[in-house]
Amino acid sequence: MAQRTRSQQADRIRHLLETEGEAIHATASDFDANRQRAYGATDDLEALRTEARSIKEDAIDRLPDLIDMVRDAVEANGGTVYVADDAADANAYVADVVHTETEEHGIAGSGDTPSVVKSKSMTTEEIDLNDALAADGIEVTETDLGEWVLQVADDTPSHIVGPAMHLSRSEIAELFNERFDPDEPFETAEALTRFARDYLADHIQEADVGITGANFVVADSGTITLVTNEGNARKCAVTPDTHVAIAGIEKLIPTLSDLEPFVDLIAKSATGQSIAQYVTMLSPPTDSPTLDFDDPEEPITAGDEAKTDRDFHLVLLNNGRMDMREDDQLRETLYCIRCGACSNSCANFQSVGGHGFGGETYSGGIATGWEAGVHGQESAAEFNDLCTGCSRCVDACPVKIDIPWINTVVRDRINRSEEPAATDFLVDGLTPDMEDGGLDPGKRFFGNIGTVAKAASATAPVSNWLADADPVRGLLERTLGIDRRRDLPAFQRESLVDWFEKRGGEAASSRRASRAARDTSTDIDREVVLYPDVYTNYVDTDRGKAAVRTLEALGVPVQVPDLPESGRAALSQGMVATADRQASRLYAALAEDLDAGRDVVVVEPSDLAAMHREYERLLPERSFERLRDSSYEICECVYGLLENGADPSALSTGDGAEPVTYHSHCQQRTLDLEAPTIAVLERCGYAPETTSAECCGMAGSFGYKHEYYELSMDVGERLAEQVDGAKTVVASGTSCGDQLEGLLERDVPHPIELLAPGYRL
After folding, report:
1. 118, 250, 396, 628: which has the highest count of C-beta atoms within 10 A?
2. CA angle 30, 36, 37 (to 5 degrees)
3. What φ, ψ does residue 311 adopt, rounded to 5°?
4. How far apart are CA 539 and CA 123, in angstroms?
5. What is the pTM of this model?
6. Do 719 and 740 form a contact (C-beta atoms < 8 A)?
7. pLDDT (tens digit, 9 = 90+) per residue, 378-422?
8. How far apart are CA 719 and CA 736, in angstroms?
9. Distance CA 125, CA 156 (A)
10. What is the pLDDT of residues 276-289, one digit of tens each?
11. Which helix (H) or strand (E) holds 738?
């Protein structure tokens, strides 16, 4: 499957923004807001999430044993378990069950075609069960309202939980009016759902076989758990004489008691409900009697005779899952409970939905792992770059899956699967990365942005003039995919490191800090190494200078050494080997300072996030822990100093009610570092108001890329609308500030610039 070109991808995204974006954003953002409220109202949330993850880890570890266990339990109850190797195997087995049942008992409906009713199941979407059964002469009817709408429309799901999320009520009404030609046109949601209920009830009554998925399968009892809001799944399970449940092998959990945290979490994380409308637990074949709808006067009786009339088949699907289990990087994907929280929390998904941010079956952040595991890397490659690594999904996931890392690893594998280009020899040996040939030139450029920035700074302002020239912008768009509509950073001739050395370096900083401590009668026994990230060192040096002046004013001496890159840029492009080397080099350069007890203070939140999150996978455990425990975001550091006796009057302060609108960087929120900045602003006499927008949309290199420009702006405009009209707007992240400055056409400083001595609103 050939990947789309940049222009094709840009056209695709533009089309989705225009046709589906409004409906997707309305529902997905509402689900996410509800989830946040539900999570906030759950006192033991973190304990539940930790417990759920632990159960899934244990279940995947024990998976072969659990398969044997559930087989014994289901067979002891009178059912059958079939483990399907792949999609074709599963489809053939289900088709055989349907034909066997109808041959033995006759066709239940008035026609001569075997019929099946289904509840919503992403696993059956994965194996294209409907098409396979139809090709085998079996009629299939979806009974979930959203899935049935898509079946009528011959469309595909755009969301794991809300499959028809991309369609508005008026579009559905138009579809139904055209397809069913009612006496009175459908106009209201009530009329549509009443018609659907009656139509689907007739099909359920006449079905030969009912097919469901399973949210969870309890291994020791064979209990199937179905979580729905419509009740259709339980009807499909118990109305026809034969019930087939199809589930991935990862849905197995050991015991009934293990269900508790999942039942508590799944509705909260999916839609923000305290609990789903219907939680059905069956240990089929069930004791419920078969029903004779043709003879409603016949008494309904239960007992052994009724039980023997029923047939149950549990189809457990492998389809690459065992290989995922053995893959250290993809294994976490199997912990997924298919709640869709990662999709709802993702700003990019909220704009384009699963038809853009998804593969053959799965959508949203976790889709990269699923698609790579069950359909192959080519499917994942179609949308993988839509994950910007913002990490908003990390706090949303009920089982704490590190979804951004899975996306990074798959991106790395996709990069390495590309064939070297004929021109690769031009950069081989000239770039400092550790990547093989075949890497997309745009990714290689952004992954080596530190080298680019150093060269551009050394040749500024000429480099800035050249970069803004129309012919150069056209060349950059054609070769590197950098959209010509996006303003480029202006590189400073004097880097932050050079500025710091020219003003006297560490010795002069120590003198300034000592003098400030005497003047304010404070005694803060701390020393700081300020990390000069690429942007702070070569582009926005003002925020770095503000950080230095602020720390010195609070009595803390500062060093600003010339340090290696953190690896954040390389990670964003899926260049894991390069990031690994950069992380090791940075740790080695800081080891002596860590030994001396100095704090490492970081201005750019994404670099701090690399040190606090991804370095766990790149450095030895002890090295990672030392750097994590000694590194701080700049406003977090200032907060700590003020809490320990530093005098805020040494900084630029407000009158106690000075309004400031503050946008926190995505990864800063994931690290729980929004609160310290708010507290510092309040302590210094400002009245901060925070934004609720999930993301700025710029996301480092993402917003520069031609194929994603419209999407980046769509996300950014939602944020700009929130802050438009505010007197003062500050933003913690590089990307956030750049995006807002472009949209608002005004300066958007870092909060530390507002606090630094001498700043005036």
Report:
1. 118
2. 90
3. -130, 140
4. 48
5. 0.94
6. yes
7. 999 999 999 999 999 999 999 999 999 999 999 999 999 877 665
8. 10
9. 9
10. 889 999 998 877 76
11. helix 734-744
